[in-house]
Amino acid sequence: MHAQTFPAIGTPGQPWGDTEIAQWRALQARKRSYADEVLTRIDALREHFDVARYGEVDCGADGRYTLFSLRSRGWDAALPVAVVTGGVHGYETSGVHGALQFAERHAAGYAGRANVLIAPCVSPWAYERIHRWNAQALDPNRNFHAASLAAESAALWALLHSLGDRVLVHIDLHETTDSDETEFRPALAARDGKPFEPGTIPDGFYLCADSARPEPAFQQAINAEVAKVTHIAPADPDGTIIGSPVVAPGVIEYDCRALGLCAGITDARFVTTTEVYPDSPRANPQQCNDAQAAAVRAALDFALAHR
């Protein structure tokens, strides 16, 4: 059982309005630097990638955040496209740094085989505040659709749709943390005026496949590679992970497009969402980054071999 740490905001049973959102936002303090921890690494990659600004998020008194992508140098329209996204939820640290680690250490190995596009930190305001939501108390990963009110989601939606039908594979890097149960799920219940229903946090790595494009062998290939780095999450006694039925070891499914998830943006044949567990006593931050990078490599290798 994880102790709840989310402060009481609003009236139980009533959804938040502007007053409650303002009260919540006033509690969100900057804890780390997007410029120092992310942009410096992106800048260091300019020799090897085309670095492009694909959007800007205006967070009022908290400033403006420019969104950047890394694109393969010498982009070839005849090649398939591989998309890697991280930091859709800003608090999920290895999503950001795993994407950057892949760019630094492995992306060059796909030159001439695929065009690689990496958006390593989709939600920089949330990255700095180690939070799931954006500055408007919206979850970016429930807001990837054409009329999105989440600026981070709208910018990435436009970027990926500009790629047309050439996207072969999209891997979106996430974490499931103890704070999901202590802070973010209670906050969601309070925001929406619903009762909080306690859940469980899986101990280990798992994948969320798209139920519309499950590609079981693809998911299994990723887990097999990640298992060399960290452990795969077992199912709960009821055969679920985070309440969803386990369809294969370490794999559950969501309807990504219907839920407005990042993995549902494109029509790529091969899509998945990684979930690393950084709070496990059997893992450390570098191991989590290694697991994310391993997942990306396995995803690209499988997709290119089976296209």
| Topology-level CATH name | Aminopeptidase
Count of all domains: 1
Residue ranges: pLDDT <50 for 5 or more in a row? none
How would a crystallographer describe the biggest sheet? 8 strands, mixed
Structure description:
The chain is α/β, with parallel strands linked by helices and 307 residues long. It has a single domain (18-305), classed as Aminopeptidase (3-Layer(aba) Sandwich). The chain has eight helices and ten strands. The strands form two sheets. Strands 1-2-4-3-5-10-6-9 form an eight-stranded mixed sheet, with helices on both faces. Helix 3 links the parallel strand 3 (81-86) and strand 4 (115-119). Helix 3 (93-105) packs across helix 8 (285-305). The longest helix is centred in the C-terminal third of the chain and has 21 residues, at 285-305. The protein is globular. The model has no long low-confidence stretch (mean pLDDT 96).
Question: Would you summarize the structure shown here?
Answer:
With 307 residues, this protein is α/β, with parallel strands linked by helices.
Q: Can you lay out the helices and strands and say which pair or pack?
A:
Elements: H1 18-26, H2 34-44, E1 49-58, E2 64-72, E3 81-86, H3 93-105, E4 115-119, H4 124-129, H5 151-161, E5 167-175, H6 178-192, E6 206-210, H7 216-226, E7 240-241, E8 244-245, E9 251-254, E10 270-276, H8 285-305
Parallel strand pairs: 3-4, 3-5, 5-10, 6-9
Antiparallel strand pairs: 1-2, 2-4, 6-10, 7-8
InterPro entries: AstE_AspA_cat, Peptidase_M14
Protein name: Peptidase
Organism: Thermomonas fusca
